[in-house]
């Protein structure tokens, strides 16, 4: 698809090329691309096209919103995406006023030098911390970082990675891009589409009109995701009127991210290991328009909520699924997070080598998570448009590893100037009154004509409302 069809006047060509590739993967009509304008210049400090990925993924989600608004009977709204603001949203949108959000990382999480290279441990969840430290022979409650480093140094990185993963933990050896290219999982990911899609017959018919100014009003989104990618997607959908209901188990918490990621959502609790919890989930699914989930492959199957059952409950459901390392190959279903995929796929190694550093140099932001989140949101929106046009439900599959491949395949053109530092004018005027204290948000990175990007609810704690639709 020619990138020249994009109405870009100041954006680098890499962003336009990425957007064209993303929109083609979404199955979007090429003519729609002429309605988007990518603005701004500068970049995050990165040897990869990180800001191009930010701008392209946010713009793709904005185009999908515009397309849904057009389906309501208005001319296709114009879309403008600000490069600097999109990049800033890839870090954090929340600015606490008079209070400090909890730390994002556990004290043990991070990169460690092994006997033959580098490895990253992801220990933010208590059970993942316990799994890693058990393999290292350390106390999960009283292991200082220095002690962890000494224990890791006695292992070869690949052997420690395998041992921790086998113990239901999360770790990743640092590999080069060339090593990942010939790794069985790297080859499997390279053969996968950026966005997998399958349609399902449903004979769905809309019974209520769509408000083009609030195109997702009345749309029910069931959110079964954690941490960043999935919550980024559902936060975006909430900005255009969707009723988002997030479901968490009683054992899960992510205190450093909840104020950032629950904006616009209602957060509830269900125990899916119990019959009552599964019955409630089935009822919610039967009335949902969109399901966004980040369970590992087969996890919902084991709970009796697999694809066939979800279709039986709601054939018109738009089902958007996320995986870390891809949907095929020997690592399909492996636990993973953005920072681990960066280590596995060669991103951290390339940064280290190109910057001349002596330790892993990851991206300046969790760009795989955020970009995949906007691609998930765009998938949900395109699924809703397709459902309105054909009456069909649909399933989309995305992965962090495949987004990493998209990023690696678009090299930046030259060295761009750094963005200007954040200014008071970068914040929106609205005050967000949360249970933690007052907050403000960055201004929206998207401007869609006649379709404001705004949230009706402040961020809220997990498990704070009943598991029911309003």
List keywords for this structure.
single chain; 470 residues; alpha/beta
Termini separation comes to: 42 Å
Instruction: Name the overall outline.
Output: globular
Strand content: 5-15%
Summed over residues and divided by their number, the pLDDT gives a mean of 95
Low-confidence sequence ranges: 1-5
CA radius of gyration? 21 Å
Summarize the biggest pleated sheet. Answer: 7 strands, mixed
* Largest sheet: spatial strand order: 7-13-12-11-8-9-10
Number of helices: 17
> Structural class, from helix and strand content?
alpha/beta
Helix content: 25-40%
List how many beta strands DSSP finds: 16
Give your account of this protein's structure.
The protein is an alpha/beta fold. 36% of the residues lie in helices and 15% in strands. It has helices at 13-25, 50-71, 83-89, 126-135, 145-152, 157-166, 177-182, 184-190, 229-238, 258-261, 275-287, 299-302, 307-313, 338-344, 347-355, 367-390, 400-408; strands at residues 36-39, 79-82, 94-96, 110-113, 118-121, 171-173, 196-200, 220-224, 243-248, 265-269, 290-293, 318-323, 393-399, 432-433, 438-441, 446-448. A seven-stranded mixed beta sheet has the order 7-13-12-11-8-9-10, with helices on both faces. The protein has a three-stranded mixed beta sheet with strand order 1-2-16. A hairpin with a 4-residue loop joins β4 (110-113) and β5 (118-121). α2 (50-71) packs across α3. The chain is globular and about 65 Å long.
């Amino acid at each position: 698809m020619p990138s020249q069809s994009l109405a870009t006047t100041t954006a680098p060509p890499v962003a336009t090329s990425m957007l064209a590739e993303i929109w083609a993967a979404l199955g979007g009509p090429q003519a729609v691309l002429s309605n988007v304008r990518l603005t701004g210049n500068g970049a995050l400090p990165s040897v990869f096209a990180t800001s191009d990925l930010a701008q392209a993924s946010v713009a793709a989600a904005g185009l999908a919103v515009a397309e849904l608004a057009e389906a309501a009977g208005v001319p296709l709204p114009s879309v403008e995406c600000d490069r600097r603001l999109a990049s800033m949203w890839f870090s954090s949108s929340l600015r606490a006023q008079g209070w400090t959000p909890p730390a994002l990382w556990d004290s043990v999480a991070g990169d460690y030098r092994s006997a033959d290279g580098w490895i990253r441990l992801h220990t933010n969840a208590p059970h993942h911390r316990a799994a890693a430290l058990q393999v290292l022979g350390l106390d999960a409650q009283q292991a200082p970082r220095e002690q962890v480093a000494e224990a890791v140094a006695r292992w070869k990185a690949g052997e420690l990675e395998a041992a921790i993963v086998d113990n239901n933990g999360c770790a990743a050896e640092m590999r080069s891009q060339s090593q990942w290219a010939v790794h069985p999982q790297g080859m499997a990911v390279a053969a996968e589409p950026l966005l997998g899609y399958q349609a399902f017959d449903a004979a769905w018919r809309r019974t209520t009109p769509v408000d083009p100014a609030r195109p997702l009003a009345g749309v029910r989104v069931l959110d079964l995701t954690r941490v960043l990618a999935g919550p980024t997607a559902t936060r975006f959908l909430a900005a255009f009127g969707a009723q988002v209901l997030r479901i968490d188990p009683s054992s899960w918490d992510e205190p450093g991210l909840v104020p950032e990621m629950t904006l616009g959502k209602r957060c509830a609790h269900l125990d899916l290991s119990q019959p009552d919890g599964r019955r409630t989930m089935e009822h919610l699914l039967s009335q949902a328009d969109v399901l966004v989930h980040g369970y590992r492959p087969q996890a919902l199957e084991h709970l009796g909520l697999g694809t066939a059952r979800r279709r039986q409950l709601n054939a018109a459901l738009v089902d958007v699924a996320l995986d870390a390392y891809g949907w095929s190959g020997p690592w399909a279903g492996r636990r993973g997070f953005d920072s681990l995929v960066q280590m596995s796929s060669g991103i951290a190694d390339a940064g280290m080598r190109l910057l001349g550093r002596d330790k892993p140099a990851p991206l300046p932001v969790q760009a795989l998570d955020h970009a995949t989140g906007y691609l998930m949101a765009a998938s949900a929106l395109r699924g809703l448009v397709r459902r309105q046009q054909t009456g069909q439900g649909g399933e989309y599959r995305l992965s962090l590893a495949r987004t990493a491949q998209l990023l690696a395949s678009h090299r930046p053109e030259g060295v761009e100037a750094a963005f200007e530092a954040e200014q008071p004018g970068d914040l929106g005027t609205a005050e967000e009154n949360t249970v933690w204290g007052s907050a403000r948000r960055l201004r929206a990175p998207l401007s869609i004509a006649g379709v404001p990007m705004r949230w009706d609810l402040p961020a809220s704690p997990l498990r704070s409302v009943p598991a029911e639709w309003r």
